[in-house]
């Protein structure tokens, strides 16, 4: 976590760039350290991982982040990117307008979004 370029966090932090939902569950409803996650782009499997593969478990992340930020009930912590990210492909397989992204977490459900063209006037955001 230390020494990580700020762009890794910034890339996922712009308004509309990290869709979640439509509902959240708490750690007492699932084991946060054993969730199977799959990401599909246009139906092609790009990522297949489990939260038990995280370098730092949820409790360590909360402890570390609490040294710099006040964490409140309901806060969401992004844990990072599993292998299979398009930028690391040879050649890079970056998302384009019209791509459909589906993320599934076993036992929780899925979310699906379509990449849209960025508006020319972003002042409305």
Describe the structure.
InterPro entries: Fumarylacetoacetase-like_C, Fumarylacetoacetase_C_sf. This is Fumarylacetoacetase-like C-terminal domain-containing protein. It is a single chain. Helices cover 10% and strands 20% of the residues. The chain is mainly beta and 125 residues long. A 4-stranded antiparallel beta sheet has the order 2-1-3-4, with no helix packed on it. A hairpin with a 2-residue loop joins strand 1 and strand 2. It is globular, with a radius of gyration of 16 Å.
Please write out the topology.
Layout: H1 7-10, E1 36-41, E2 44-50, H2 58-65, E3 100-105, E4 109-114
Antiparallel strand pairs: 1-2, 1-3, 3-4
Look up the CATH topology: Fumarylacetoacetate hydrolase, domain 2
Biggest sheet descriptor: 4 strands, antiparallel
The fraction of residues assigned to DSSP E strands is: 15-25%
Task: Report the mean per-residue pLDDT as an integer.
Answer: 83
Fraction of residues in H or I helices? under 10%
Order of helices and strands: HEEHEE
CATH architecture classification name = Alpha-Beta Complex
Q: For the record, what CATH class applies?
A: Alpha Beta
Give the count of structural domains: 1
Unreliable parts:
none
- Terminal CA distance reads 29 Å
Task: Describe the global form.
Answer: globular
Q: In total, how many beta strands?
A: 4
Helix tally?
A: 2
Helices and strands: which structural class? mainly beta
CATH superfamily: Fumarylacetoacetase-like, C-terminal domain
